Amino acid sequence: MSVPLLSLIVLLPAAGAVVLMFLRSEDAVRWTALGITGLDLALSIVMLVGFDTTTHEMQFTERRPWVPALGITYALGVDGISALFVFLTALLGSTSVLASWTAIESKVKEFMISLLVMQALMLGVFCALDLFLFYVFWEAMLIPMYLIIGVWGGDGRVYAAFKFFLYTLAGSLLFLIGVIVLYFQGGETFDILALTAQDLPFPVQSWLFFAFLIAFAVKVPMVPVHTWLPDAHVQAPTAGSIILAGVLLKMGAYGFLRFSLPMLPEASVYFSTLMLMLSALAIVYGGLLALAQDDLKKLVAYSSISHMGFVTLGIFALNLRGLQGSILQMFNHGVTTGALFLFVGLIYERTHSRSIADYGGLMKVAPVYTSFLALFTLSSMALPGTNSFVGELLVLSGGFAANLALGAAAVLGALLSAAYLLGMYRRVALGPATVGARYKIRDVNAREMVAILPLALFVLWVGLYPKPFLEIIDASVKHLLVQVHGKEGSQ
Amino acid sequence: MTAAALLQSVLASLPEILVITGACILLILGEFVRKGQEHLLVWASIAVVLSAALATLLLAGEVRPAYTGMFVADRFAVFFKFVFYLATILTFLLSRKYADIEGIGSSEYYVLLLFTLSGMMIMASATDLLSIYVGLELMVLCTYVLTGFLRKERRSNEAALKYVILGAVSTGIFLYGVSLVYGLTGTTQLNAMAQAVTGDRLDPGLLLAVVFIVAGLVFKIGAVPFHMWVPDVYEGAPTTVTAFMSVGPKAAGFAVILRVFLNPLVAASDAWIVVAVIAVVTMALGSFVALVQDNFKRLLAYSSIAHAGFAILGVVAGGEDGIASVMFYLLIYAFMNLGIFGAVIMMRNGNSSGEVIDDYAGFAKPHPVLALLMLLYLFSLAGIPPTAGFFAKFYVLSALVERGFVALAVIAVLLSAVAAYFYIRVVMVIYMREPQRVFEPALTPSVRATLAFTAAGTIGIGLFPAWFLRLAHSSVFGG
Fold first, then answer.
1. Mean pLDDT calculated for residue range A321-346
2. I need a surface site. Which of A369, A451, B213, B453 has the fewest CB within 10 A?
3. How far apart are alpha carbons A379 and A463 in whole angstroms?
């Protein structure tokens, strides 16, 4: 293929951000931003349609020298693991623009520019095949995200933005040292594929594993470095929360899949029990915290910690079902939690309250809103027929195969999620219509519907017919397993 | 010295001669410049620097030793001289309006800057401890005066006095080290020193001499424990002079340090341990003390201490990559630091000093473009990609790791995470606070040009570092 499709996908939002700088009217800014994210989504669908599911090789690859003296290249490519995330990022990009249509009232242009820059960088992270390029994308995301939280966030936005920035920065900087060490250990190259093929001595692997772990664990986030997440989520504007939950959290897990497992296989196997324990801890602890929340956004935020625990559990189960499940579950979590944050944002726009105690009987005043809320709530608690069921089932069966006790702890987390999600839904939507008396609430309008429907579609599609999604990741996951266990020679 | 050798020497030092001659002519002609015509001085000074730059470029082809081994015009010197030219020209451009507002726009101001420049150029080319001394003194004497240029301000006077006294002591220490070296080896030429030592390299006398020389030089780049003058001088001096000093004389200090450390005599001793400790302590002090500053100029002073510490790490790493990384770092630092100082200078207007960080509250609202530029410089100083500041740090770190100093690299990144806090705190004030009062920045075309140029450098080197990296690399062993 001669068209540099991935470069187009990555650079289109960045180019769009430049275009936005010259627009005057706020409406023109909104429509242009929507048009660009829509076009980006279309391009990512083109990419998925042209994706060859029979191979684990990188596809749509591009390679240009960037800093030849240090062996740094501008290299892009996708395999089964990253293709799904490119699509997810593009999908949530247009959702975010729609979610910010009226919610952002001041400095609309600057906000949309930040959003598009963010979009470009996130896509870059998933497409990068050069470790240095990956790091540049990864770290540069701090700038727009810091501004999105800090400028357009809630009352405690400054504190939240600082916390987010410093946590992530501290984690990433150790990752940077890891990257440089890897560069010299792995034959002075930043090429991810070449580094994957290296066989590093075990002590080096262990050190690198922990250097990488700090960066990725902060992003996921894993307990005990999760404390930035509730603050950031609660204070961020809706679009910021969607991006954070939908895409940013996936990057940590993606880092495990792309770097820790294939490059440091022996260390990954050696420390897998530790990682499983941390995952189970996150599942249960996140669930318990979510149970105690009155703030809707905080509840969803803590549920994210719990759900991302499932993802890391699946990854470090280091078997086929666990890995398949965790990748699928990341996609599901992006869709479902993105939708839940969207819903919290929608109701917040109307009532300016996120406290569950302020609601009740929402069903009677906004029936369409509550029906869709029901769908996403059920999806989040992994009811059969919804997307998360497929993912969670795979993760759990993989987890049980890896470690019985920790698998059981994860089941406890699944029970907890039913408790806090159903409790939340009951208190918000059911009961006497107290909320209608206090606020004048209109149901969802056409624009909001356009944002909701694609997400609802994927909840049901993955839930009822997950085969095409599993096919995309299948070859790459199998190859990853060969890389992990083949080198170790145990399986 | 034969006539041919003399001619060769004059040719090699032509850029220095041009700058000094130009400065002398301006000193005389400056008397005839009428009030309201001061901009002519700026353009004339820039013309002097540009002619020197042209001469440097034309002579850059080969290595030219001169003055019986005291001076050399090699690519190492050329690289540094261009950093100096850059800093000087941008300072001239920034000075015009600022000098008017502060009432310091006399010809002496520009002439002194040119003399400082010539001192720095001699330092970059010097290959003998004595010629280093001459350049160093020429440079610092001019900066003493420039620091005290705001004659009516107490802060400025106090800073100048402090600077003179401490500077004189450090020069004394340096000279004492030089005399010890001469006593022990019978020479002051850097190349001849190593050959002259036949006995024990760890001779306490020799070690003492090296330590004294290092101490004298470390003072000039403002590293711990000789950093005390930096915050006061940076705060008290006219902001344009501060901007200039944080880039030019600092780079000149590094040029000399690199030359001395290229010397096998020093490289063979265990001086690198001392230097590593200095680097870490300098970074730590700069980063932590900057956290509590309310004055922007003071904050940038501590930030420049921290950056000096980071650059010294490249000296610790040594080798081709280490030296290239320091040079690359200084080039990038020149762009981003002059940029942020340009923003501070432009804020000096009417009755606002532009020095209090809280004055910048909500600056993004009325001036989105200027705020974006400040954001760019600050994130670059913090070392966040894709800005040039990230690449500068990355290259130093990779030089460190290559030499096996992984622990030092880890300490360095942790301290730079601390440093990131105070840079993004300023970003927070600019973007996330409500405006307190209206600010009208003093934006002249020349300030605009400076900001645009430094921003282009800050983002451009970040995105396309390859060419600049090659330049720094080829300049290391070009001589």
1. 92
2. B453
3. 9
- Nearest CA-CA partner of A37 in A461, A450, A345, A329: A450
A-chain CB neighbours of B375 within 8 Å are 143
| Contact map slice: B 365-394 vs A, CB within 8 A | 368, 375, 379, 384-386, 390, 394
Nearest to A69 among B385, B397, B473 (CB): B473
Q: Do A140 and B386 touch (CB under 8 A)?
A: yes
Flag if B401 and A146 touch (Cβ within 8 Å).
no
User: Residue ranges of the domains in chain A?
Assistant: 271-491
* Separation of alpha carbons A221 and A229, rounded Å: 7
Is it true that the peptide bond before B238 is cis, omega within 30 degrees of 0? no
Given pLDDT bands bounded at 50, 70 and 90, which one contains residue A55? Answer: confident
- In the three-class reduction of DSSP (H, G, I as helix; E, B as strand; rest coil), residue A77 is classed as strand
**Residues of chain B under the 70 pLDDT cut:** 1, 197-202, 263-270, 477-479
For B285, half-sphere exposure in the C-beta direction (CA atoms, 13 angstrom radius) is 20
Distances B333 to B243, B339, B340 between C-alpha atoms, Å:
11, 10, 11
**Cα of A407 to nearest chain B Cα, Å:** 36
User: Closest Cα partner for B408 from B320, B276, B218?
Assistant: B276
Closest CA relative to residue A243, chosen from A84, A115, A101, A109: A115
**Predicted pLDDT of residue B439:** 75
Give the Cα separation of A325 and B143 in Å (integer).
66
pLDDT tens digits for B451-475? Answer: 999 999 999 999 999 999 988 888 8
The reply to whether residue A173 touches residue B416, judged by beta carbons under 8 angstroms, is yes
Nearest to B124 by CA among B244, B226, B12: B12
Q: Do A161 and B402 touch (CB under 8 A)?
A: no
Q: What is residue A490's predicted lDDT score, i.e. its pLDDT?
A: 41
* pTM of the entire predicted model: 0.92
**DSSP letter, residue B357:** G
Give every CB contact of residue A5 below 8 A, 6+ residues apart in sequence. Answer: A43, A46, A47, A50, A60
Q: Flag whether residue A11 sits within 8 Å of chain B, measured between CB atoms.
A: no
Output the pLDDT for position B260.
82
The kind and range of the H/E element at B71 are strand B71-73
Tell me if A177 and B386 make a contact (CB, 8 A cut-off): no
What ipTM was reported for this prediction?
A: 0.90
Question: Rounded to whole angstroms, how far apart are CA atoms A276 and A84?
Answer: 24
Q: Chain A: nearest CA to B369, how far in angstroms? A: 10
